[in-house]
Amino acid sequence: MAQVKVFYDEAGNTLTVWFGKPQDEYVCEETGDEVILMKDRAGRVIGFEKLNFSTAEPKRLQIAFEAITA
Is residue 70 part of a domain? Predict the structure, then answer.
């Protein structure tokens, strides 16, 4: 089973989500919606970062995921 890593930087107001290995990051691409896509050498998205992300209660940040099989 794949592992998803989520990091919230309260000081920097960023939410970073990795569903690939962070060390495989080769290039980043900004989408224009304050979202940055992290890609590997093959161009596959392995994570994303949401800029200007904030929440009133960071200690209670809840994240839900749904797995879809192809």
Answer: no
**Within a domain: residue 15?**
yes
Q: How far does Cα 36 stand from its chain's mean position?
A: 8
Q: Which helix (H) or strand (E) holds 27?
A: strand 27-30
* Residue 11 domain boundaries: 5-56
Residue 46 region by backbone torsions, left for phi larger than 0, else alpha for psi between -120 and 50, else beta: alpha
The two counts, helices (H) then strands (E), for the chain are 0, 5
Q: Tokens 């590997």 appear where?
A: 40
Three-state secondary structure call for residue 32: coil
pLDDT digits (tens, 9 = 90+) for 3-21: 889 998 989 999 999 988 9
Q: Which two tokens stand for residue 3?
A: 């592992």
